[in-house]
Amino acid sequence: MIKRYTRKVMGDIWTDENRYKTWLKVEILACEAMAEAGRIPKSAVAAIKSKADFKADRINEIEEVTRHDIIAFLTNVAEYVGPDSRYIHLGLTSSDILDTSMACLLKEAGGIILSGCDNLMTAIREKAFKYKETMMIGRSHGIHAEPITFGLKLSVWYDEMRRNKKRFESAVETISYGKISGAVGTFANISPEVEEYVCRGLGLKPAPASTQIIQRDRYAEYFTSLAIMASSIEKMALEIRHLQRTEVLEAEEHFSKGQKGSSSMPHKRNPVGSENMCGLARVIRSNAIAALENIPLWHERDISHSSVERIIAPDSTILMDYMLNRFAGIIKNLVVYPERMAENLNKLKGLIFSQQILLALAESGVSREDAYQMVQAHAMKVWDEKKDFKALITEDKKICGLLGKEKIEEIFDVTYHLKYISTIFDRVFSSKG
Q1: Which member of 141, 263, 264, 307 is catalytic?
Q2: Which residue among the candidates 262, 286, 367, 431 is catalytic per the annotation?
């Protein structure tokens, strides 16, 4: 199911072929830097660049014996290069290659995810403006509160996704650091100039200080940012699931021709895409916990983080790419029912105007406590006796005497709640990002 929606380019980043290709790029850049420094012959670098190659199957075969991925990789590359292979990996440690290449892969994956953010934000923005003044009931605790518009709801989503994008842009920047500093980060057998050359060639920055590895707080920021983004999408998807409930039915996922909702009930049209988003968000959040657990390592480095990252790096980035594009499709094709929204808006027989009556009474000189009791007494009759709230207020001689019928009519005008929608839209959509 996931492969069907994930763009091929994200999956390609995490193939063995691309991983080894990135390792080789790091090694060759290191050789170039050492040749510039006069440490190895330039002729050897020319030979390495022309001959260096690998075969993923052969590397995996060698690793079955060596139980070490970098050694297996270097052994296979040496089979192509010959004697000049002795200059490859000179003064380097495995994590110089692993961590620097991982920064490249995560940065590349980050670019795709940021593109997905733009795609989703565009879809939300278009829907928000389309339904900018489409009235619906706002809910708190799941209970009818006061009127909002569907566009306003979507503007909140857009603003949140902008924060997610900004947060993740920062995380991509944090992850875009490499290290070529040797076994414990002291540059004992390699110079800082080599590190600078390699990182520059890869579009990275040198880590100001490192041990044998890049410190894992960088990775934790990246994967935690993905977890927050996934959680935001889950929040939006959960709202769509609520809006699609039969009793609500104010919006629903597009149900395509030939689609089936249930193996046993032909009438079913379920919010399966949104439910899918909610489930996948749990996986990405769990991976963020694993990334946080990877921060504390023994001394200058142990290997407990490695097995974790082989799972969470491809899984979280592929899933996030999938979620962004799948949910953008859900938003673009979302079926909205303004008539149902209007119907639900009137379901509580005018109770949604109770706060305005309360405020008007307070402004007329009644204490807030007394005003609250006056309004609540009528509100409970609506709940318990199914009476009309406006009629009860109008029939109350004390309230009517304090406010007047003209003021009461003004209070029960639903467009009162629209007066600042354009202001909110200006604040959200006129901002850069």
Answers
A1: 141
A2: 262
3-state secondary structure of 391: helix
- At 188, the pLDDT band (50, 70, 90 cuts) reads very high
What residues have CB less than 8 Å from 287, skipping those under 6 apart? 223, 226, 227, 311, 312, 315, 316
Which CATH architecture fits 351-411? Orthogonal Bundle (1.10)
pLDDT tens per residue, range 294-306: 999 999 999 999 9
CA pair distance 287, 275, nearest whole angstrom = 19
pTM of the model: 0.92
Spans of all domains in the chain = 8-90, 93-342, 351-411
Residue 1: pLDDT over 50: no
Say whether 115 is catalytic: no
**Could you read off the pLDDT of 189-246 as tens digits, one per residue?**
999 999 999 999 999 999 999 999 999 999 999 999 999 999 999 999 999 999 999 9
CATH second-level architecture of 93-342? Answer: Up-down Bundle (1.20)
User: Does residue 262 carry a catalytic annotation?
Assistant: yes
Q: 3-state SS string over 111-134?
A: HHHHHHHHHHHHHHHHHHHHCCCC
Superfamily of domain 8-90: Fumarase/aspartase (N-terminal domain) (1.10.275.10)
